[in-house]
């Protein structure tokens, strides 16, 4: 494995699916516990090194001085030792090479430093699913991570059942790849195909179309709307099918879905209908991560908060 880092190298590694290092970020909350369990499962499956990281955020202690930071770091190390002991006692770590680390600083900057330092291939993070005004002021650390990270991020949302991290729990569930036919999602598709092949899962491609006119809107009747939707579904399904190259050699025949309405809601409906085991989203690079993470209409975060499966985000330039 090359010691160099950066988006192209990480993208290539995920496409080849030789994951050798996985980073799980934790704040010792139930949401983080689900993410750590998911990371352990992934690390065991790939024989990867696991890093469990807690970050003492500099935001809350910067005005209180170094003494407050030191006290917080000491408490974090105690919590980390307790977590390691609990995982060892439960035998969840059996067969997994794991290191437990506490660092201080800006959360997503420390995570990115760790990605470079330890040559991380995949980040796993949980989210509490803050919504509305609470999210406007506090922001989503998870969203900051997946929009800022140079490597793929698997986010475990608040609705994911606690036991779904078990290797056998989601074995039969398909992977859902949502595409808007834009560069970000199309660049991520080869990695989604590779992941489906590696895990032996069915891959379903989804596109969400804008709402067509409602019955009675101007001169459209209910039958007009039905015919228009059917026509659009056929054309879009054909467009989705053309995205799978002949040499992809998927182990299972891919599926295709077309939804109508707002993108995040369409993705959630499709994931619910399929009982998806994972959703894959390609994201464009965002320049101002801090601002973007506070926007209540961010589609990717809305999906993470609403579905009962992990969401893999692949950030592209």
Give the arrangement of secondary structure elements.
Layout: H1 7-16, E1 21-25, H2 30-46, E2 49-57, H3 58-61, H4 66-89, E3 98-105, H5 107-118, E4 122-126, H6 132-138, H7 141-148, E5 153-156, E6 175-178, H8 183-199, E7 203-209, H9 222-241, E8 255-260, H10 263-274, E9 278-284, H11 289-292, H12 299-306, E10 311-316
Parallel strand pairs: 1-2, 1-4, 2-3, 4-5, 6-7, 6-9, 7-8, 9-10
Antiparallel strand pairs: 5-10
Helix pairs in contact: 1-8, 5-7, 10-12
Radius of gyration: 21 Å
Helix content: 40-55%
The largest sheet is:
10 strands, mixed
CATH class designation: Alpha Beta
One letter per element, helices H and strands E, the order comes to: HEHEHHEHEHHEEHEHEHEHHE
Low-confidence stretches: 1-15, 132-139, 287-297
Beta-strand content estimate:
15-25%
> What structural category characterises the helix and strand content?
alpha/beta
CATH topology: Rossmann fold
Q: In short, what is this structure?
A:
With 317 residues, the protein is α/β, with parallel strands linked by helices. It is built from twelve helices and ten strands.
Could you explain the architecture of this structure?
The protein is an alpha/beta fold and 317 residues long. It has twelve helices and ten strands. A ten-stranded mixed β-sheet has the order 3-2-1-4-5-10-9-6-7-8, sandwiched between helices. Helix 9 (222-241) links the parallel strand 7 (203-209) and strand 8 (255-260). The longest helix has 24 residues, at 66-89. The protein starts with 6 loop residues before the first helix and ends with a strand.
């Amino acid at each position: 494995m090359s010691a160099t880092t950066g988006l192209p190298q990480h993208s290539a590694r995920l496409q080849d699916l030789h994951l050798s290092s996985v980073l799980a970020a934790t704040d010792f909350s139930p949401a983080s516990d689900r993410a750590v369990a998911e990371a352990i499962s992934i690390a065991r499956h790939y024989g990867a090194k696991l890093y469990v990281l807690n970050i003492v955020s500099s935001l809350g202690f910067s005005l209180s001085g170094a003494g407050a930071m030191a006290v917080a770091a000491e408490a974090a190390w105690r919590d980390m030792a307790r977590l390691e002991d609990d995982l060892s006692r439960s035998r969840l770590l059996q067969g997994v090479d794991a290191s437990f680390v506490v660092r201080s600083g800006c959360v997503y900057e420390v995570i990115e430093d760790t990605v470079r330092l330890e040559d991380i291939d995949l980040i796993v993070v949980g989210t509490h699913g803050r919504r509305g005004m609470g999210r406007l002021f506090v922001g989503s650390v998870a969203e900051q991570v997946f929009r800022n990270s140079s490597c793929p991020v698997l986010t475990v949302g608040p609705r994911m059942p606690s036991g779904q991290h078990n290797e056998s729990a989601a074995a039969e569930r398909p992977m859902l790849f949502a595409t808007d036919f834009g560069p970000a999602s199309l660049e991520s598709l080869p990695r989604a195909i590779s992941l489906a092949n590696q895990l032996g899962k069915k891959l379903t491609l989804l596109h969400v179309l804008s709402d067509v006119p409602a019955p009675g809107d101007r001169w459209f009747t209910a039958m007009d709307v039905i015919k228009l939707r059917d026509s659009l579904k056929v054309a879009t399904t054909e467009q989705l099918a053309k995205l799978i190259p002949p040499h992809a050699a998927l182990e299972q025949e891919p599926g295709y879905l077309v939804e109508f309405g707002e993108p995040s809601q369409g993705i959630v409906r499709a994931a619910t209908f399929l009982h998806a085991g994972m959703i894959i989203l390609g994201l464009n690079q965002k320049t101002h991560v801090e601002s973007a993470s506070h926007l209540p209409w961010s589609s990717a975060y809305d999906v993470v908060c609403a579905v009962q499966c992990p969401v893999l985000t692949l950030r592209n330039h």
